Every structure is written in structure tokens, then in C-alpha cells.
Amino acid sequence: MLIKRYAKNPILQKEDIPYPVATVHNAGVVKYQGKYMMIFRSHLFNGRSIIGLAESEDGFHFKARAKPFMVPSDQEPFKAYEEYGVEDPRVIFMEGEYLITYSAYSRHGVRVGLAKTTDFETVQRFSMITEADYRNVVIFPQKFNGLYARLDRPHSEISPWSVWISYSPDLRFWGESKLIMKPVQYHWDEMKIGPGAPPIKTERGWLNIYHGVFPTMDGCVYRLGVALHELDDPSRIIAVGDQWILQPEEMYEITGYVHNVVFTCAAVPEDDGTLKLYWGGADKVMCVGTAVIDELVDHCLNHPRKAI
Ligand code: BMA
């Protein structure tokens, strides 16, 4: 068992939130002043999503703030693209600020926005960094040859939805895009894959925990897998682990708002070589588990498949 589920999952759910929500899931988590800050997605009762904030001393027990952290912007140019809600935030720390990427839904499709905070009290929209239709942007917490790098997942009718890398000098303009990882037919992630947690730096490469989807007669099953990217050139994938590392098994993952979903937006590395992996269970509750980082890297190298 690579991921050890916390015995008291779920760790955050709608009953824990001081304002009315239908779900708590797909949260970004990062350390800030020794605390774990969780920015989580919630469906409102109209089916649209907002983002809340919960804090923890130990990464397992979270307390939600009284008010939401991000709701659809009322300022252009963001207003037009966030009308239907903000979803699935990822957060990293870089150069003194916390960078938050999130999906923005509107009548014009789904785009990804970038917002910044330094104190988790206020948040500033920075830029919409994709056109429609993109989701799942994770930014590497380091520059490469002076450029920021991100993974994302565009939608295409022709090719199964795959992972791409892009670069930017300023977080605003992105380019040099390249497809780096595809689903494999009749494997657990054959339908589509997408970046999950922001990549984690290890001695042997960047660890990328991603999600993969398999279509069944009973709907789609969302699972998690791992890939390892070269340290100096993250567009080069050393290995993709061919077997999933987590699949829906507990009741809170099998039934909920959307059945059979484990979906991650965050993994927090610890000093002892472990990480805390956070995932949404069935799009309804937040869960946590622990893993040994070296074991996840070994998993990529010991059960490899080609990236493309
Ligand atoms: C994806 C996104 C995720 C969600 C998943 C399972 O397409 O909408 O936010 O967790 O589906 O429903």
C-alpha cells in the first residue's frame, strides 16, 4: 500500500463549514508560517463552486474560516470568465508569494486563472493564463533557465486529453508548449489524464502525482498515478508508473456528489521523507493519507511505461 489512508478520514466536510455548502473537495494545501493552509472547493446549492480556507497545526485537523476565500470576481477581466464559479485550486510558494491556480468557468468555457496571496487574508487576481478549454494547471516551485514552468491539460477532440508543459518569463505570457504525457489505451487512465498535485522535488527527479480516468458502463473512475520528470528539464519524463497508486475504495470515495472519484490538487512534503497527500473523495469530502516519497519514486522506476 503506497498511500496510507488516515484512519479518521474524511478530514473536512460540509458540516464543518460555517456557511452553507453542499461539498468540500479538491483542495490545494501548502505550509504557511508553520501551519497547513487548505484552500478547498465547495459546491453551492446552485451547483456552482467557490473556494474556502481551512487551517491546521498538524495537517490532519482543519478548522474552516467563517467566510469563503475566493468567490467569482466582480472585476473585469476576471468577472466574465468566473461567472459559473471557481474550482480545483492548486497553491505553491515561490519567491515570497503564494501562487494559486484555479479553474474558472463561464459561458465561454473553462480557463485557468492565477491569483496571489502573501498572507492568506487577501488574495489578488493576477491574470487568466489560458484560453478555453484548459484545466489542471500546476506550476513548478522553481524556474528553469530563468523561466517559470507549468503542466496543464488542454481538451482536444482528436487526441485523448493529455499533459502538456509550457514556460513563461513572467507568469503572464506562456509558450514553448509541448505535449509530454499521454493516456495509454486500455490502462486505468486510458480516457484522460491531468496534473494533480504541484510537482515535488526529489533527489531523483520531480514527482508528479496526476489523475487518470477510465470509462466504465457505470460511469468514469478517477484514480491517481505518479510520474518522474528530469530535475533540470521537466519536459523530459524519466518514467511513468504504470499502476495506479490510489483508487476509490472507501465509502467516502465510492459514493458522494460524483461516485468513484479520488482527485488530488495537493501533496505536502515533510522533512522526514514522507508526504501528506490530500484528495477529494467522490467530489464531496476532503481526505488525507501519507506516503514515503522514495517509495513513490521507486514505483515509477520499478513499474515504468513510456510517457507518450
Ligand atoms: C473533473 C473535474 C474535477 C472532478 C472530477 C470528478 O472533470 O470536474 O473537479 O473532481 O471531474 O467529478
Description:
InterPro entries: Glyco_hydro_beta-prop_sf (IPR023296), Mannoside_phosphorylase (IPR007184). Keywords: Glycosyltransferase, Transferase. It is a single chain. By secondary structure, the chain is mainly beta. It has helices spanning 251-254, 293-302, and strands at residues 4-5, 25-32, 35-43, 49-56, 63-64, 85-94, 97-106, 109-117, 124-128, 134-139, 148-154, 163-168, 175-181, 192-195, 200-202, 205-216, 219-229, 237-241, 262-269, 274-281, 285-292, 304-305. The longest helix is centred in the last third of the chain and has 10 residues, at 293-302. It binds beta-D-mannopyranose. The site of beta-D-mannopyranose has 9 residues, from strand 6.
What is the level-2 CATH architecture name?
Answer: 5 Propeller
Bound molecules: beta-D-mannopyranose
Specify the CATH homologous superfamily.
Glycosyl hydrolase domain, family 43
Largest sheet: 6 strands, antiparallel
Domain unit count = 1
| β-strand amount | over 45%
Radius of gyration: 18 Å
Q: Span between N and C termini?
A: 27 Å
Order of helices and strands: EEEEEEEEEEEEEEEEEEHEEEHE
Q: What proportion of the residues is helical, as a percent range?
A: under 10%
Provide the low-confidence segments as ranges. Answer: none
Apparent shape: globular
Q: Helix/strand-derived class?
A: mainly beta
The name CATH uses for the topology is Tachylectin-2, Chain A
Number of E strands: 22
Number of helices: 2
CATH class category: Mainly Beta
